[in-house]
Design brief:
Elements lengths: L2 H29 L13 H17 L3 H8 L4 H19 L2 H8 L1 H19 L4 H18 L2 H12 L9 H30 L4 H20 L9 H7 L5 H14 L2 H29 L11 H24 L5 H19 L5 H29 L5 H23 L5 H23 L7
Helix pairs in contact: 1-14, 2-9, 2-10, 4-7, 4-17, 5-6, 5-17, 6-7, 6-8, 6-10, 8-17, 9-14, 9-16, 13-16, 13-17, 13-18, 14-16, 15-16, 15-18
Membrane topology: Multi-pass membrane protein
Keywords: Cell membrane, Ion transport, Membrane, Signal, Transmembrane, Transmembrane helix, Transport
Function: Mediates high-affinity intracellular uptake of the rare oligo-element molybdenum.
Length: about 450
């Protein structure tokens, strides 16, 4: 058994232990004495099943996107880089408008648009026509912005409208479960995509399978979800006579009040820097490990390493539920720790010293990722009002995409990981300081 297989085995064993501990805690809570007013927490599986399918469609195609461009479509590296940049630019441009459109016309409708747009992106990516490939990247950028804004927005609003907190559900636990499901799906999808390519003999197979998953997700959304709107949509729009009425002015006033809130600004800064650094990590971890490779002359086992990263994410998301469920720290304090830990990981990775130490530092960063998303999701859910939720979530993705595009334009090739990781480390510490300054000595901080 080689060292990376051994590492993955150890991480999966840790996930198993944490899962059993989490189940034991849940059983203990279920057996605890309760008063007559306590009710069984309602199911959120209509949302979670769709979310799982949507994330699986994303993870299936991710590992083979570059390979499909390069090895089957035979595109030059410069054109591939332009295609990737096009996706981020499209995502940034879409983020400025899709949130407001989802609030007005409905978050359920926006999720259906995601399924259609992402399925078309998968179909166009399998073609060999360069113009169609660019169209696919534009639709892919639009789909990514929708995936990471309107789904979460629909869920949080539905959680409040149905009064799930009063009926025993916990929003933080839901975000923790979403993170765990996402990590598990990533591991399965990575193995599944490799099997599909081997079975079909083409790198187009994962994209076709992703389209099928999106069709199933669309059917579940259509049949199981109810619609919810922001203040400028649905019944509110009919009452105000459209966006030009008082409802629209009220919404604009509330939007400005939210986006100018120092807590929201600091969260936006933290999300831009952390998620932007995460995207850069995805681009640079391979050359960083390759620069200190000593384990195998045949090359690194990238699939096993990727699975190890996802196992680290899964382990931390399981630990997140245990930490927050017991009230050990506040969500804001936890986010500060995540940002500080991530900064340290990038600092240590800027000048890697050995292959295994670099690998485990990367696993530690992936563990931070596993806690970051449920923690950030909970904080945004608490600080941003339902009426403009999708719009604010979309707006927060605009600086993220700008950050990634600008970073990729200035970083050059993959060998520049040292300076990039050093800059990410400094920016993460700055984000940590900004969040601390915005929340220190503040009351009612989640």
């Amino acid at each position: 058994m080689d060292i990376y297989t051994l590492n993955l085995t150890a991480l999966l064993a840790l996930c198993g232990v944490l899962f059993l501990l989490q189940r034991q805690t849940q059983k203990s809570n279920a057996n605890a004495p309760t008063n007559s007013k306590t009710t069984r927490a309602p199911s959120q599986w209509p949302f979670l099943s769709v979310y799982t399918l949507a994330m699986a469609s994303d993870w299936l195609q991710g590992p083979y996107l570059y390979s499909l461009y390069h090895d089957e479509h035979h595109l030059p590296p410069a054109l591939i880089s332009t295609l990737f940049t096009t996706g981020f630019v499209a995502g940034g441009a879409a983020g400025s408008v899709i949130g407001a459109a989802a609030d007005r016309h409905g978050r359920k409708a926006a999720c259906l648009v995601f399924c259609v747009a992402y399925a078309l992106s998968c179909a166009l990516t399998t073609t060999g026509s360069v113009p169609l490939l660019f169209a696919g990247r534009v639709l892919g950028g639009l789909g990514t912005s929708l995936l990471f804004s309107v789904f979460e927005s629909w869920m949080v609003t539905d959680f409040r409208v149905r009064g799930l907190a009063a009926r025993g559900a916990d929003l933080g636990a839901t975000f923790g479960l979403m993170s765990s499901l996402n990590s598990g799906v990533a591991i399965v999808s990575g193995v599944g995509s490799e099997w599909l390519v081997g079975w079909a003999g083409t790198r187009k197979a994962p994209f076709v399978a992703a389209g099928g998953l999106l069709a199933v997700a669309a059917g579940l959304i259509w049949s199981l979800w109810s619609e919810n709107y922001g203040e400028t949509g649905g019944k509110e729009e009919a009452k105000s006579g459209g966006s030009g009425g008082s409802g629209g002015q009220k919404s604009e006033t509330k939007l400005w009040a939210i986006v100018s809130n120092p807590k929201v600004i600091s969260l936006g800064l933290a999300s831009t820097i952390f998620e932007g650094s995460m995207y850069l990590f995805v681009f640079f971890w391979t050359p960083a490990l390759r620069s200190v490779q000593s384990s195998s002359p045949q090359g690194l086992p990238y699939g096993v390493i990727f699975a190890s990263f996802m196992a680290s994410t899964l382990a931390s998301s399981l630990a997140f539920g245990m930490i927050t469920g017991r009230g050990l720290v506040s969500y804001t304090t936890l986010l500060l720790g995540i940002l500080a830990t991530s900064s340290l990981c990038f600092l240590l990775s800027a000048q890697p010293r050995s292959e295994q130490s670099t690998f485990w530092v990367f696993c530690l960063f992936e563990a931070a990722v596993g806690m970051y998303f449920p923690c950030m999701g909970y904080l945004k859910g608490k600080l941003i009002e339902d009426g403009v939720r999708a719009q604010v979530y979309g707006m927060l993705r605009v600086p993220l995409n700008v950050f990634v595009v600008v970073s990729l334009l200035f970083t050059g090739d993959g060998d520049a990981f040292g300076p990039v990781f050093s800059v990410c480390s400094g920016l993460l510490i700055a984000a940590c300081g900004a969040l601390w300054a915005a929340t220190a000595n503040q009351e009612a901080v989640p």
